[in-house]
Amino acid sequence: MKEVKYRSSLPRIIFFSVAFLLTFTTQLIAQDGAALAETEEVAQEPGANAENGERLFKANCAACHRLYQRATGPALYNVTEKYEREWLYKWIRNSQELIASGDAQAIAIWEEYNKTAMNSFEGLSNAQIDDILAYTDTPKPEPAVAVATAAEAPATGGGVSNNIILGLLAVVFLMLIAVLFLVNRTLRQFATQQGIEMPEEEKGTPIWKAFLENQFLILVTVIGLLLGGAYFAYGWMMQIGVDQGYMPIQPIHYSHRIHAGVNQIECKYCHSSARVSKHSGIPSLNVCMNCHKQIQEVAAETATEEYSKDFYDKEIQKLYKAVGWDAATQSYTGEEQAVEWIRIHNLPDFAYFNHAQHVTVGQIECQKCHGPVEEMEIMYQHSSLTMGWCINCHRETNVAMEGNEYYDKIHEQLAQKYGVEKVTAAQMGGIECGKCHY
Fold first, then answer.
1. What whole-number distance in Å separates Cα of residue 422 and Cα of residue 399?
2. In this predicted model, what pLDDT tens digit does every residue of 297-319 receive, in sequence order?
3. CB 436 within 8 A of CB 351
4. Which of 119, 118, 89, 91 is nearest to 106 (CA)?
5. Closest CA to 254 of 218, 294, 282, 214
6. Its pTM surpasses 0.90
7. 183 burial class (0-12, 13-18, 19+ CB within 10 angstroms)?
8. Cα(74)–Cα(68) distance, rounded to whole angstroms?
9. Are 436 and 390 in contact (CB under 8 A)?
């Protein structure tokens, strides 16, 4: 009789049971996820468009409101759960009329926010308000977690490390040196046993002794050392007071890259005195608060690998602490702290420089002297600001005469004198000593 092998059905039963449980569990998880999504989804009006609501919110509401934090007005996230929709229609269209009617909720909000009057939006329809409210119900997105991709993951293949290869080569090199030493030693011992005399090299005059005996070489060397020392000493002394590349760390981090670059804020908005004064001036913190009353945190896309969003947000909190601003109540506390800014560009006392003469009259761009400020994360001194640097600029820069009748006659005379169409600042007397030294 042919023997038949008995195979236990227990493994099959376990396998199918696990498969069934996994399938059933997956379905339950999917159902739970759908149910969770349904519970998280806030009831919205039928036909409400959150995308259109975002556009309307930014055009009408963003000046005073944020979704997830208090600003001039309250945070508007989930505002539909706090108030009835019909009441919201009335409040958005004309809040002052609702307050005047004696509505308790309207009066409470008005008093809580320092009796700040809200703009009326009577032109918005119910459908548009529904769109805005649909946008305010958008949950706050979770911060993105960086996940290393396959391209970014460290290589874990079977390749040999470069350090191992270099180590093996070093070992082989040392072994070769040892072998050559042993071969040389063996050959010498063999020659000694055979009675072979090894030729001895004649010792010449040492180089240092020959050098000391040659007076001409000594004279040339001394002259060369004196000239070289004078050259390097002069170069070192000429760098005294030249702080090109100076980049101090300020008490509050200020990114010119974000302000002048990303947001394209004009330099003279903050340094307004550059138009009319000798000095460009350090902006007062009130100028900063013109924007940062509303901007309590930076946009995530402005962060870099070196400077995170959390870093920038903490620096804004330093600004609030310095001016005594309470973001929660949108009011000043009166507790101020001085900010000791560190000056970067500084000319000697005997050198005269007038910003207004260059910025307003000469129409010189700030980047001409200060470099690509809109690209600088940390401000630094771009140019050397030496006398030679200024003189070269005066020799190369033509004076803008258009629309300036005062210079018409002198420009015509100087153009004929020098035989040119455009007169430089140097030809106008820009390199005379008394222009900068007084």
1. 7
2. 998 899 999 999 999 999 999 99
3. yes
4. 91
5. 282
6. no
7. exposed
8. 9
9. yes
